[in-house]
Amino acid sequence: MPPQGRMGGPGGHYMTEEEKAAQPKITGRLIKRVFGYLKPYWKQLILVLICIAVSSVFNLMPSILTGKIIDEGLIGQNMRLLIIFIVASLSVTLFANLIGVAESYINTWIAQHITFDMRNQMFSHLQSMSQRFYTTNNQGDIITRMTSDIDGVESVITGTFKSILSNSITLIFALIAMFQKNWILALLGIAVIPLFVFPTRRAGKTRWTLTREAQECNDEVNGILNETLSVSGQLLVKLFGKEKQEYERYESVNRRMINLNIKERMAGRWFFVVLHTVTSIGPMLLYLVGGILIMKYDSSITVGDITVLVALLGKTYMPVNSLLNIQVDWMRSMALFSRVFDYFDMEIEIKNPKTPVYPEKNTGEVEFTNVDFSYDPERQILKNISFKLESGKSMAIVGPSGSGKSTVINLIPRLYDVKAGSVCFDGVDVRKLDLAFLRKNIGVVSQETYLFNGSIRENLQYADPDATEEDMIEACRKANIYDFIQSQENGLDTMVGNRGLKLSGGEKQRLSIARVLLKNPALLIFDEATSALDSISENKIQEAIDPIIKERTSILIAHRLSTILAADEIFVIKDGEIVERGQHKELVERGGVYTELYNTQFKNAETV
Ligand code: ATP
Questions:
Q1: Separation CA 601–CA 528 (nearest Å)
Q2: Ligand 1: which of 372, 378, 381 to mutate, most ligand atoms within 8 Å of CB?
Q3: pLDDT tens digits for 250-300?
Q4: Are residues 27 and 143 in the same domain?
Q5: Is the minimum distance from the CB of 576 to ligand 1 under 6 angstroms?
Q6: Distance (Å, rounded) from C-alpha 65 to C-alpha 180?
Q7: I need a surface site. Which of 303, 351, 381, 548 has the fewest CB within 10 A?
């Protein structure tokens, strides 16, 4: 589906095949839900309705007064009346426009507040979505819902709703006024309308198709820019020497884009030629037939009346065209709303229990009992995992890549819930614990450390906004990063760069250890980076974690012998099952999975 929020676009009155296929079922429930968002603003809405009605009517008045200016002022040669009508006409125009300003303000205010509510609601909803949602859904899609789709909703309120109302009112009043003046000419004027509806529709269709193609092209351009102009993208391009190829890829889409833009602008130009020619037929016909009526049939119709009719006819073109297309606009608006609602309706997988439990102790003890888990129904990842980590103890989880080590730890802070069995934290099933409490008491140093683009201080304060300078320094000392910070000109205020990329891998890891220490969790989980660090960096990390894990309950996903040796007990996982457990020495001697890992990974790593 193309990005939305283009309803205001020229010729946006035609649904594409794609859109037709994705048409929402417009049910009473959907409409009720849409109007539910308007409900809190009903007072302002009534005000808008009044403003629209008044300004639509007042906008027609100058056209009617023109008749009086001509007949009674000019032809009647009455200076006083001429001036009165001129002043009246100008005042009415001014008044209608002032009301228009007020209406725009209130309308925009309502629309902005509705989108404000919706965005906040969506943001908070998305924050409660599970990790599964984020690993499955395209990030671009999520951002589109948050931005363009909700922006589209705003244009529905300021555009579509307003258009229905103001066009209907303008049209009704213009037609009444026309028929009051002269029904023959009024009918004639209406008869001309189909003449311009057809070309408008055609030109609109072409433009819409081109606009859509240009926008798809634009999405493609954005995609290329995102991929190639990001830090890691550029690194890849440079290291593989793909600059020329990337340039050519970009240039070709860019070229397609300008061609489409030129075509689109030109389609617009032809549209205006056709429109102007056809719309000028109507007034000419009115002058002609009006003249015949006056000259041949001695009708009571005046020159002023004909002028009024011509002016009013001009005012009916736009509303007729818009109203003819309202159904499509309406469908598209509803499609937009239902796209947003689809996200709102996605079930929150990991919910806080209704009556959350807080454990009596807070020691970070973890117990897995016969845990089965799978990300997708087809493939079971963890099978019958059972272990108990006593408080104050540490365990190392080792195993081949993809065996399920990270998956085990994902289950503790409830990033995912078990399929069968249970995970207990401090003696209580994690599904019964208060989610915020649980996560507050678990600190994870993950493989991919994520730092925000800010200073070291800001990154540390993310864990504890109230941390004092001393707290931060102490945490950094413990994490073995303080020397580095001190050596920097700006100390704690050193900027870490985009995603922390101005720091080395080891520095990032140690900084994230300091961050976790400031959080001061009962359970510490350290998912060791698989990527190799130099031995000095490794030693520094090792020196940092050794004392920490002696102090508190910890789980280490270990890839290095030194880390493994620091733990009280070693668990070996293979294909989602615990196949061995014990101490290093006995496991090496056993000749099983651990021995193999030791011979292939740990031993070599030690000698590097
Ligand atoms: P490594 O040492 O390479 O980090 P690991 O032992 O930590 O590996 P996990 O990350 O737990 O392995 O992954 C276990 C299996 O689950 C892998 O086969 C992986 O493909 C799969 N997997 C991991 N995350 C997801 C996910 N979000 N959705 C579906 N499958 C996943």
A1: 14
A2: 381
A3: 999 999 989 988 887 887 677 677 777 777 888 888 899 889 988 888 778
A4: yes
A5: no
A6: 14
A7: 351
Q: Which residues make Cβ contacts (< 8 Å) with residue 215, sequence separation at least 6?
A: 2, 3, 6
Atom 8 of ligand 1, nearest CA residue: 402
> Where are the alpha helices (H) located in 377-434, listed in sequence order?
405-410
* 178 and 325 fall within a common domain: yes
pTM over 0.90: no
- Tell me which residue range forms the domain holding 593: 362-441+523-530+551-603
One-letter identity of residue 530: T
What does the alpha-carbon distance between residue 286 and residue 291 come to, in Å, rounded to a whole number?
8
How many domains would you assign to the chain?
3
Q: In this model, does residue 560 exceed pLDDT 90?
A: no
CA distances from 513 to 105, 443, 542 (A): 51, 9, 11
Find, among 12, 8, 82, the residue nearest to 325 by Cα.
12
Look up the CATH number of the domain holding residue 515.
Answer: 3.40.50.300
Q: How much distance in Å is there from the Cα of 248 to the middle of ligand 1? A: 36
Q: Mind listing the pLDDT tens digit for each residue in 112-164?
A: 999 899 999 999 999 888 888 888 876 767 777 788 778 888 878 778 878 88
Crossing angle of the two packed helices 162-181 and 42-68, in degrees rounded to 10: 30
Are 569 and 556 spatial neighbours (Cβ–Cβ below 8 Å)?
no
26-49 tens-digit pLDDT: 778 888 888 888 889 999 989 998
Regarding whether 594 and 457 lie in a shared domain, the answer is no
